[in-house]
Amino acid sequence: MKHWDHSSDALPAVAVPSDRRRQRGQTAYHAGLAAEDSVERHYVDRGLRPLARRWRGPGGEIDLILLDGDAVVFVEVKKAASFDQAALRVRPRQAQRIGASALAYLDHMPRGSLTDMRIDVALVDQVGAVQVLENAFADFW
């Protein structure tokens, strides 16, 4: 076959995600949204007010941002089969990126970097139960 002959049934040498892989990605995406919904309800039920969702800063995306009195709470949501497995998905580098984005968000607050803040990690297990690790990144600051 010549390079200009397109009569062959040969497939192009381009990697195309399989339908199964694409479906897994969609399932994970929607499971993540559902986990964020559960976590947001958890915080709202405790009196916090949502400010933003999936806010993108210079360090990356912050899943949830809420107001707790005068303090801003940044939340990283992790979903897995168990709380332990979800907790293992939080990496030190991720803590640094979330912290950088959190500081950038505070630039938009009236008190700027003087605003009280904390970064929580919310763990969601396979049945949708929520466990919050409040001020989870305190050791990084």
From TrEMBL:
GO terms for molecular function: endonuclease activity; nucleic acid binding. SUPFAM superfamilies: Restriction endonuclease-like (SSF52980). Gene3D superfamilies: 3.40.1350.10. The keyword Nucleotidyltransferase does not apply. Keywords: Endonuclease, Hydrolase, Nuclease. Pfam families: UPF0102. Residues 1-26 are annotated as: Disordered. Belongs to the UPF0102 family. HAMAP family: UPF0102 (MF_00048). This is UPF0102 protein SAMN05421762_1119. It comes from Pseudooceanicola nitratireducens.
